[in-house]
Design goal:
By secondary structure, this protein is an all-alpha fold. The protein is built from 13 helices and two strands; from the N terminus they run H-H-H-H-H-H-H-H-H-H-E-E-H-H-H.
Length: about 280
């Protein structure tokens, strides 16, 4: 049976190795027994068997694929040519829908769904910890964001009385978009079928209500991904800034006599006034 100790590969048949092995002293053993267990049963088993991969998954990976499929279906409509509805309003709605799918999105504010799916996959893979941080030290990643979240929970509870988990989970909204995006895909797919069946060349007989719903759904897909991705990145940056400032002020907590004496010499009037106000 595999064991953690067995993985170390100690060669008990080597006389040199055996000659340096000594039993632990009773007081050392007693101290070790006082230390809480570092691993539970399943953790011990996984470490013993070197089976510590595959703990994470991106919960929206398949959803993003489906969103991209919907966008590409719209992009292929009429072979890239403008679609013409039975009224100017419908024509404008169809144009908006295609722009949201392929180019720059409504109001020129964001990449279209096709490009955003790549961005959204990148950030959700990082937030899900299914990829390493790599050389990108500026984009949010689970390993740092979760640490910031724990710290912010304690800090904001003390400073602002926050009693919910928003400080810890506020930078992970993108991985919670599955239900919203899946519903939009489910609502959009039959509308794309209606649009396809309504085409004669580039001319469409789609109704105004169907064109409006199609445009709105496509727009909501785009804005959901962009807004959540942007929010998560901003939350990560803001949490890092707060953590930095916390470290700046916390260095003056618990100062001993010598450090206090030194700070009186090198501390600025700003610092000294703050310290004196709390003594």
């Amino acid at each position: 049976m595999a064991s953690v100790y067995g993985r170390l590969g100690f060669d008990s048949t080597n006389p040199v190795a055996n000659s340096i092995v000594q039993p632990l002293a009773p007081d050392v053993l007693a101290q070790m027994k006082m230390i809480p267990s570092w691993m539970n049963a399943w953790q011990t088993k996984d470490v013993a068997e070197a089976n510590t991969g595959g703990y994470f998954q991106n919960p929206v990976a398949n959803t993003i694929i489906n969103v991209n499929t919907v966008a590409n279906t719209m992009i292929r409509m009429a072979n890239g040519n403008p679609l013409v509805g039975s009224t100017g309003t419908i024509t404008s709605l169809l144009s908006n829908t295609k722009n949201n799918a392929i180019t720059i999105g409504r109001s020129n504010t964001a990449a279209g769904i096709s490009s955003e799916c790549n961005n959204f996959t990148y950030i959700t893979n990082r937030l899900s910890n299914v990829v390493d941080m790599g050389s990108d030290v500026t984009t949010t990643h689970y390993t740092i964001a979760i640490g910031y979240g724990k710290m912010m929970s304690y800090l904001t509870n003390q400073t602002d009385g926050v009693q919910n988990n928003s400080p810890s989970i506020g930078g992970f909204t993108s991985v919670y978009t599955g239900n919203t995006l899946n519903a939009l895909v489910a609502n959009t797919t039959p509308l794309l079928t209606i649009l396809t069946n309504s085409l004669t060349g580039n001319n469409s007989s789609i109704s105004l209500s169907d064109a409006q719903n199609l445009d709105n759904n496509m727009y909501q897909m785009l804005t959901t991904m962009v807004s959540c991705r942007t929010n998560d990145q901003n939350f990560y940056v803001n949490s890092g800034a707060v953590f930095h400032d916390y470290n700046e002020v916390s260095q003056f907590n618990g100062m001993g006599q010598s450090q206090t004496q030194l700070i009186k010499m090198i501390g600025s009037p700003k610092l000294l006034s703050r310290i004196n106000a709390n003594t």
